[in-house]
Amino acid sequence: MPSDCLFCKIIAREIPAEIVYEDDGTLAFLDIHPINPGHTLIIPKRHSDSFAVTPPEDVAAVMRAAQTLSPAILKAVGADAFNFTANNGRAAGQLVFHTHFHFMPRFAADGYKMWHGPEGDHHLSDVAAKIRAALA
Hints:
By secondary structure, the chain is of the alpha+beta class. It contains three helices and five strands. β1 and β2 (26-30) form a beta hairpin. The chain is globular, with a radius of gyration of 17 Å.
């Protein structure tokens, strides 16, 4: 556990959090800056700085926890939809460098909109070719 990792400190119970779920591999707690009631962070207990370097078994554990939690969170806050996402890296808005996923309950009138890129030629076939090449 890195000594300066906020989420590792929450796992170790060194700092308080409103924990809503825990199993052998994951911990889930309410975000202290929620976009809506029930905004929950789901994290693997084993430290990894970002999703890109998280062991697959830890990612799978988080996904299982999210599936367990989702109906309970939606019922508890009266939401009928949610966003589930991870910010990976500073440019994407990651602030705490311990892999974590945001479960954000959504309401029809909450005012939050999904982002859309500009219309136009995005060279999709060129980008797709580069991705396929990078996988090889």
